[in-house]
Design a protein that fits this description.
Helices cover 35% and strands 14% of the residues. It has seven helices and seven strands, in the order E-E-H-H-H-E-H-E-E-H-E-H-E-H. Helix 5 links the parallel strand 5 and strand 6. The protein is of the alpha/beta class. The longest helix is centred in the C-terminal third of the chain and has 37 residues.
Length: 277
């Protein structure tokens, strides 16, 4: 099993998909308990949801499950949300705080480092390469990190999650125009709820790559799974009717970002030109 798949396009948008993979190596699978083997914390069908929405978009998809190692966590293990419940670089509990390993079978530090090198690192090497390729071609690159989660996870947040959860780490990971375009798209999506920088402000991927001064902008979209699944429990089936309605709005959002790219390129060129004067 290859850790990552890349579907290279010729446009300015790169879709990151770190959590839709379901592969768990046999030597890890056998150590997971019944809760872990359910793989409930998968971003179910997110790759399918975004597939072919925007001609020219690049997709970088992790094939491994986040229980192997979480591609959207700091490789040094630093918490994304200090003081709040969250999952770690190499999770030992699920989103409900329940153990996912058989007693005594949790990975030790040496194994975690090996998993980081074998799975986490190849994903980010591929993502970095695609962002650099796209930036070279278009003058900028826009990373749109694709996620989903159950709409109710009491261990992580109170109440019911909005349908669209946009994260820019307080506006630091992208140009204001990008944030505004996405918020306009989610706000104008009739029948859906939305929030900006609520419980999910952008994971490590968004925060790490989102450096507008370098020409790389990043934004995270966390979707409530009730927007595109028939049920948020086993078998986590894709609901084509729900998904088709949602895909209309996702396409509008991605198209708006693509349309912004030339303007952002010009602005960056002007800034670089001023810096060289």
């Amino acid at each position: 099993m290859q850790p990552v798949e890349v579907f290279a396009g010729d446009g300015p948008i790169v879709l990151g998909v770190p959590h839709a993979g379901t592969y768990v190596p046999p030597e890890i699978w056998s150590r997971l308990n019944e809760t872990g083997q359910k793989l409930a914390d998968t971003d179910w069908h997110v790759d399918r949801l975004y597939s072919d929405l925007l001609p020219g978009a690049t997709m970088v998809k992790a094939n491994f499950h986040r229980y192997v190692i979480d591609a959207n966590r700091d490789p040094k293990g630093v918490s994304l949300y200090p003081g709040q419940n969250t999952t770690t670089l190499c999770p030992v509990t699920d989103f409900d705080g329940r153990p996912i390993y058989r007693d005594g079978e949790e990975p030790a530090a040496k194994e975690i480092e090996a998993r980081r090198a074998n799975w986490h690192a190849p994903y980010h090497e591929a993502l970095t390469a695609e962002l650099e390729r796209v930036r070279h071609k278009h003058g900028i690159a826009i990373l749109y990190d694709c996620h989903s989660i159950r709409s109710q996870v009491p261990f992580l947040f109170e109440g019911t999650l909005p349908d669209f959860n946009t994260g820019t780490n307080g506006g630091t990971t992208c140009a204001p125009d990008i944030e505004q375009a996405v918020v306009a798209g989610t706000t104008n999506s009739v029948g859906y709820t939305s929030v900006l920088n609520g419980r999910f402000k952008g994971g490590w991927t968004t925060r790490h790559y989102g450096q507008p001064v370098t020409g790389i902008h990043a934004i995270q979209m966390e979707l409530a799974q009730s927007t595109h699944l028939a049920t948020e429990d086993t078998p986590f089936a894709y609901d084509e009717s729900k998904a088709d309605r949602l895909r209309v709005h996702l396409k509008d959002i991605l198209t708006a970002l693509e349309d912004l790219a030339p303007e952002l390129k010009t602005k960056r060129q002007e800034i670089l030109g001023e810096a060289h004067d």
